[in-house]
Amino acid sequence: MVDSAKFVITAIAHGESLLPDFIDRFQNFLSSHEVLTVSKKELSQRATDYFVNFNSEADGVDQLKAISAAFQQDQAVTDVDIIVQKNDEHRRNKKLFIFDMDSTLIYQEVIELIAEYANVEKEVQHITNLAMEGKIDFVQSFLERVKLLRGTKADIVDEIKLKLQITEGAREFTKGLKVMGCKAAVVSGGFIQFANYLKEQLNLDWAHANTLSTEKNAEGEAVFSGGTEGEMVDADFKADKLLELAELLQIPVEATVMVGDGENDLPAMAVAGLSIAWHGKPNVRRRASCQLNTKSMADAFYILGLTDAEISRLIE
């Protein structure tokens, strides 16, 4: 940590490298807005830390975010993510990561995969669209979509597990976190069978998700009943679980991170020490601490201030 700098701004390129002119242009833009760059640190060819000071009576992080966004708009920069954080002891010392599942740890939405088997893709997608437009809330949309799955054979779960596409870099990132001593959980508004599968695949510490209830059909086969059992895992559950696990681990909330993409992740993002919108919806990108829109989730190591050499040692 550069002790004399109050803040750190990290630029992460979507492509193979940060262009040299970008590094200088960004520093000059910061200077023109009375942001003093104390030093720079190259994390990789694709990522650079700017350790900066900025005199502000308001929240310096928010103002530096606004300045960074103005730079991206002014310079038409669309292929670089810029992350602003306090340069404190928590930046490189995170202890708990909470991950969403659908469109975060995996590329797909599990309920849509099940809907294909149930031949209700269009109906499920229609309800999903209503929820995304804010016309119905998560709980209502979830229950209505689950209801459409009634009668679908429950044994399709094993087949669908094999179709799950784990997000590029997620294996490396979660492996590195374990080596760093971090705990990690998947907390999903999806279904526990798949969350548990990812817990096993990624060696996570906890998995929490909804449980699809089953019943017997006329042939005596187990089928989905169209409902769930147990506590509903919704937006509030995610936030509560993050705080509960932080208390269990006896760590400050500043050492916690929420990674997700959707509206359902916002309450947990609001209470986490750091929130990362991974290819998030527009409103989530606006409200999260930062956003990451690169190809690999392992690029989140740069947000923690790690260099390529340090990352290699973690995941080797």
Automatic annotation (TrEMBL):
SUPFAM superfamilies, per the entry: HAD-like
MF terms (GO), sorted A to Z: L-phosphoserine phosphatase activity; magnesium ion binding
Domain of life: Eukaryota
GO biological process, one term: L-serine biosynthetic process
Pfam families: Hydrolase
Keywords, comma-separated and alphabetical: Amino-acid biosynthesis, Hydrolase, Magnesium, Metal-binding, Serine biosynthesis
Annotated active site: 100 (nucleophile), 102 (proton donor)
Enzyme Commission identifier(s): 3.1.3.3
InterPro entries, per database record: HAD-like_SerB, HAD-like_sf, HAD_sf, PSP
Keyword Magnesium: yes
Involved pathway(s): Amino-acid biosynthesis; L-serine biosynthesis; L-serine from 3-phospho-D-glycerate: step 3/3
Cofactors (names): Mg(2+)
Residues spanning the membrane: none
Gene Ontology cellular-component annotations: cytoplasm
UniProt record similarity statement: Belongs to the HAD-like hydrolase superfamily. SerB family.
Classification via PANTHER family: PHOSPHOSERINE PHOSPHATASE
Full protein name: phosphoserine phosphatase
